[in-house]
Specification:
Elements: E1 11-16, E2 28-34, H1 40-47, E3 66-72, E4 75-79, H2 90-106, E5 110-118, H3 125-137, E6 141-146, H4 153-165, E7 171-175, H5 184-194, H6 197-201
Parallel strand pairs: 2-4, 2-5, 5-6, 6-7
Antiparallel strand pairs: 1-3, 3-4
Bound molecules: guanosine-5'-diphosphate (GDP).
């Protein structure tokens, strides 16, 4: 039986340049991170089943803000800036590093992080930094190896196994494709647990 996707109702709330502009530190927030061009916006559009909720763009590094989407008054998605891209000026990168570090350290409502990586270019410095921050803050990280449609099954599986071996125990990982919707149910399952949808429904 096809289940209902609870993320379809996501809607844009605000874009924050600074942490103090974020909504109150209450309820449940799940952050989505990824290097520019990794496929993060496409992943958000895919699991919310909306064509253009998160802007997909071929211009890397365009968004340097935390974009908040709301599911309901207690549940939010935080789209983190993909500042890891080389073309972002060094000063801006340093600024965002600080803001991000503080976000991970202080944000009490942060329940989990979805880290999006292009399956052909996994575990770059940006990704390792995100994993470190999650680990230090005790926040689970779920990795999407996206654009899996760009690889054959064999190489996709071996990348999955290889990256999985490098992860801390608190992290999980799956194959994903926004184009083909591969792994969508698995992602929705993970998010539903973090957002406590299962418990409510049951
Ligand atoms: P972001 O910068 O991380 O938000 O990346 P985008 O979602 O804007 O995607 C960057 C580029 O990769 C765009 O041209 C997308 O169409 C493409 N893309 C994203 N996800 C997939 C996918 O699952 N499969 C394929 N083939 N292309 C993808």
């Amino acid at each position: 039986m096809k289940r209902v996707n609870p993320f379809r109702i996501a809607s844009y709330v605000l874009s924050a340049h600074e942490l103090k502009q974020l909504p109150k530190d209450e309820g449940i927030e799940v952050a989505i991170a990824g290097r520019s061009n990794a496929g993060k916006s496409s992943a958000i559009n895919t699991f919310t089943d909306q064509k253009s909720l998160a802007r997909t763009s071929k211009t890397p590094g365009r968004t340097q803000q935390i974009v908040i989407f709301e599911l309901d008054e207690d549940r939010r998605i935080a789209d983190l800036p993909g500042y890891g891209y080389a073309k972002v000026p060094v000063k801006l990168k340093a600024h965002w590093r600080k803001v991000m570090a503080r976000y991970f350290e202080t944000r009490k409502c942060l329940r989990g992080v979805v880290l999006v990586m292009d399956i052909r270019h996994p575990m770059k410095d940006f990704d390792r930094q995100m994993l470190d921050w999650c680990d230090q803050a005790g926040i689970p990280c779920h990795i999407l190896l996206t654009k899996a449609d760009k690889l054959k099954r064999g190489p996709a599986k071996s990348t999955l196994l290889k990256v999985r071996r490098e992860l801390p125990a608190s992290a999980s990982i799956q194959i994903f494709s926004s184009s083909k919707k591969t792994g969508l149910d698995e992602l929705i399952d993970k998010l539903s647990i973090w957002y406590e949808y299962e418990a409510k429904a049951g």
